[in-house]
Automatic annotation (TrEMBL):
Gene Ontology BP term (one): response to stress
InterPro entries xrefs: HTH_MarR-typ, MarR/SlyA-like, WH-like_DNA-bd_sf, WH_DNA-bd_sf
Protein name (database record): MarR family transcriptional regulator
GO molecular function annotations of the record: DNA-binding transcription factor activity
Organism of origin: Streptomyces aquilus
Length: 159
């Protein structure tokens, strides 16, 4: 490797210029996925260490935390996370076993099930939030270079 080249320098790579076979929007999306995937990978280990849950379970906790004071139906959680309902049932069971969520039948709907955070989960998320936020912020700073930032602006000019 040349002395002036670093592993993260992909400026000579044809796929990083956006002038290949992909339309600009798809190329931008792929750059963003790569950067967020790298951050997500770093976050997985921090989530496991700090919260002792899987990354998918963490996403459920975050979704519920984004709706404070209210329960969400499992079908809605599956929709919002793009997860199969059967897989979600297993993850919710794991979270319930850990004392992080409660689930109950929806009044008037025998098949409907609502899920809510417990106080234990709220406290755990509150204690870990600074570390998790720092992991995301530092990861984005490392993996979101000029190409990714430009791609994001092109996809979402109002952002």
């Amino acid at each position: 490797m040349a002395a002036d080249s670093t592993p993260s320098d992909h400026s000579d790579c044809p796929s990083s210029t956006g002038d290949g076979l992909l339309p600009a929007e798809l190329h931008a999306w792929m750059l963003m996925l790569a950067a967020t995937g790298a951050v997500e990978q770093e976050l997985r280990s921090v989530v496991k260490e700090r919260l002792d849950v899987s990354h998918d379970e963490f996403l459920i906790l975050c979704l519920l935390a984004g709706h404070p004071g209210e329960a969400l139906r499992m079908t809605r959680i599956a929709e919002l996370l793009g997860r199969p309902k059967t897989r979600l049932t297993y993850q919710i069971a794991c979270l319930q076993h850990a004392g992080l969520v409660t689930r109950q039948s929806v009044c008037g709907d025998k098949r409907g099930v609502e899920v809510a955070l417990t106080e234990k989960a709220r406290a755990l998320l509150k204690d870990a939030s600074a570390t998790l936020a720092t992991t995301v912020k530092e990861g984005l700073a490392r993996f979101m270079g000029p190409a990714q930032c430009e791609a994001m602006r092109a996809l979402m000019p109002e952002a």
